[in-house]
Amino acid sequence: MTIGTRARPSLTRRGSRLADRGFVVLTAGLAAGIVGLLVAIAVMLTLTSRETWQTFGVLGFLTGTTWDVVNGVYGALPFIVGTIETSLLALVIAAPIAILTAIYLAELAPGRLAVPLTFTIEILAAIPSVVIGLWGIFVLSPFLRSTVEAFLVQTFGFIPLFSGPAYGIGLFAAGVILAIMILPTIITISREVIIAVPNAQREGMLALGATRWEVITRAVLPYARSGIMGAIILGLGRALGETMAVTMVIGNKDAIPDSLFSQTQTIASKIATTFNEASVGIQTSSLIALGLVLLGITLTLNVIARLLVRRVTGGVPRRV
Amino acid sequence: MAVEVGPRDSGSSPSETPLADGAAGSPVSEGSATGRLSIEHMSAYYGAFCAIRDLNLEIVPQAVTAIIGPSGCGKSTFIRTINRMHELVPNARVEGSVRLDGEDVYGPEVDPVSLRRVIGMVFQRPNPFPTMSIYDNVVAGIRLGARRPRAELDAIVEGSLRRAALWEEVKDKLRQNATALSGGQQQRLCIARALAVEPEVLLMDEPASALDPIATLRIEELLGELRRLYTIVIVTHNMQQAARISDVTAFFTMDEGRAGYLVEVGPTRQMFTSPTEQLTEDYITGRFG
Amino acid sequence: MAVTLDQPLASSALPRLLTLRTDRRRTLLDRFMRGLTVAAMVVCIIPLVAVIAYVTINGLAAINLDLLTKPPKALGVGGGAAAAILGSLQMVSLATVMAVPAGILSSVYVSEFAGTRKAAGIRFAADVLAGVPSILVGIFTFTILVLPFQQYNAFAGSVALAIIMWPIVLRTTEEILALVPGTLREASLALGVQRWRTVLSIVVRTGFTGILTGVMLAVARAAGETAPLLFTALGSRLINVGDWQRPMDALPLFIYQNARQPYPVLNAQAWGAAFLLMLFVLVVNIAVRGRSMGRRTY
């Protein structure tokens, strides 16, 4: 038998190069699709809401305080205020707790505890919003009503901010439930950021005779500052976009809240509760316009936050 | 073949060196025992692994003691046992005693946090705090304690920076961020920071190894000045450096179990010209390590 | 003589170790703050435990055969979540079928073919897309798949879910692919295997378990989403199997609707459905994350 009598396979292999090229094009197209999708979302929301922008003007719509379907007047201000207030309240409650917890998990917890505890926090993030909302209606709300809210109204009720009546449904409940939902976001990112602080910083402060807490507050946290800021902003972004749990406990009243316990509405809850019943074109258009406002706010915050976190860690942890 | 080194005075009588504005530094009179370290039967472990076994060593005050030896023989571990940074590693422990002027730093009554004010440390890579200015870096340790008036802090900053031979270069830019300085300047800043809290002992873990030769030389000159005031222990992998700047040299190596131990210690001149142990001579002449 | 370190510099008294005490205030503050961090940790665990406990207790009480097998009663109050369960199964499956190939192939581009800048840009876009509130994804899908047909439909619901899943699959797959050693690719190419086959058969297959992990997380996420379905699939009281042009119910929608009803019977059904949903989501998450617990590579 002689070797070498096999026909040499064609060196040009035109067909396979085409296949390879096609493959790259396919995958590139899909990857570009992500960018395209983002653009498409922004474009479609703008297009379908243009009637509202044209009728009321950008400033007019954003500052309008009336949402009257019957008379065809639409203003976004109550919902913008409701959104910002619930989210800020959630932040005020969640941020200190989250940062302290992140410090515990990253610096102080013994290794054997730190891992399962971090894991548990991440599990909290996985529970669907509507399930938390259900719990919110039937468990959290009555609890808040009879304990925290009752106490606050009794003690501080003379201040308008704390004036009753307090039904357990309203701004405060929404803030609390949002706080619960954004805790994992802030904790996991802050924890990553704190872990990323170089050990040499800790040692430098320790060698000067600092207690462990002083090392944390004077060497670790200042170094991780921008990353933690990023974590908080990402938490804020998450709070702004949260829909179901908030809708279920906020009371759904189209009014700027005058007290911590008033019923109110966020952009997301307004859209969720009225979109499908919208009968007039301009009503739908205005609801979509609300959505566009929300999109603008969350996108901006998201980008800023990720840039901040990148500064400390060189990247953002993916499970956010 | 022995290495020729120049003569070194050991324990010349120090004079009082005032900090700027009259706040006096710690005066040490000849023959006083402040800052003397006595290490007896000290062993250091990481879990089950023995990193240093049965160390016995005296470190004399107002002198520079150099710790030399091949990599991994426990030199860095050793100095970290002195200021109780070693025990911060999980499962790390120390046996035996380390005495500062007769008192065991591992005694039950001793607070490690306070200990580290008395025994300072400078690290291999300069680690200034990047969110702080030069000024704030120097007083970072001072600020841990009670509040002091601004004028006092200013005096401490100037005094410490002068002692670290950095004052002239940074006196006009104290508010600037510390990371704007060069590597050598940052290391002198770290030295100033360590000195600001008035330690008795200064531990230095290869302080010049991350620096260029000129910066290294400046650090070495600095140590020549500082040894009059402090007990200095310097770990170095650079034998010539040890020969240049130290009064006493201790040679470590490791055994088959990778545990570090002291081979020989003595006045630097003698260690480099006529060491007693064969191992020492082998290391000095470059036959191993 | 006890000397604290807080004496002024100009002092001739030298501190002695045995009598050295750090300022009590500092020590107390240290202990107190460290205790506070533990307290914060506990505070975080409480809601988690509370949610799981209540959902389990109330949910288990409501689970019965009717809940699982019957659709809501046409008239009056009663029936079950069969429509919702079937709907969720169908829509999430279709969404997965759409999102997984898209996600894997686009991540292949990022990991195998794109230059650093393009890769970073696409990763960034994926992260941004993941941050878009899901209700807005619902509106978007409404405008392209419901409005033109003037008909709420299950297909639109699936597409909305797929949009949410896509960036998740992309990012998790891309990270796994990055871990596959370059030598594997080189060996395959050196043997004359075409690029596309190398990528699919060798690289992707090597990272298969990791990719599966990411997919499962995305599936769990999609199963729990409500807002995107509100304006697309709408929900329904009728069992819908296979009719993608009509509305379809889903577990999250079922929970949402029944939670707001004034009838305790329906509220109980909501708890039952919530329990099913939560169980599914938790089991997937624990199974997936539990395996890589402690091994975090970024």
Please provide a written account of the structure.
The complex is a heterotrimer of chains A (about 325), B (about 290) and C (about 300). Chain A is flat and about 90 Å long. Chain A is about 75% helix and about 0% strand. Chain A is built from twelve helices and two strands, in the order αααββααααααααα. Chain A is mainly alpha-helical and about 325 residues long. In chain B, the strands form two sheets. A six-stranded mixed beta sheet of chain B has the order 6-7-8-3-9-10, with helices on both faces. Chain B has a four-stranded antiparallel beta sheet with strand order 2-1-4-5, covered by helices on one side. In chain C, helix 3 runs parallel beside helix 6, helix 3 packs across helix 11 (about 250-260) and helix 4 packs across helix 6 (about 155-180). Chain C is about 70% helix and about 0% strand. Chain C has helices at about 25-60, 65-70, 80-115, 115-130, 135-145, 155-180, 180-190, 195-205, 210-225, 225-230, 250-260, 265-290. Chain C has a domain at about 85-245: MetI-like (MetI-like fold, Orthogonal Bundle). Chain C is built from twelve helices and no strands. At the A-C interface, helix 1, helix 4, helix 5, helix 6 and helix 7 of A face helix 1, helix 3, helix 4, helix 5 and helix 6 of C.
In short:
The complex is a heterotrimer of chains A (320), B (289) and C (298). By secondary structure, chain A is mainly α.
Poorly predicted regions of chain A: none
Sheet with the most strands, sense and barrel status of chain A: 2 strands, antiparallel
Q: From the 3D coordinates, which CATH architecture of one domain in chain A would you assign?
A: Orthogonal Bundle
Give the CA-CA distance, first to last residue of chain A.
65 Å
Rg of chain A, alpha carbons: 26 Å
Radius of gyration of chain B: 19 Å
Low-confidence stretches of chain B: 1-31
**Fraction in helix of chain B:** 25-40%
Highest CATH level, the class of one domain in chain A: Mainly Alpha
SS summary, helix count of chain A: 12
CATH superfamily of one domain in chain A: MetI-like
Instruction: State the fourth-level CATH superfamily of one domain in chain B.
Output: P-loop containing nucleotide triphosphate hydrolases
The number of helical runs of chain B is 10
Number of E-state strands of chain A: 2
H and E order of chain A: HHHEEHHHHHHHHH
Mean pLDDT of chain A, rounded to whole units? 89
Task: Give the strand line-up of the largest sheet of chain A.
Answer: 1-2
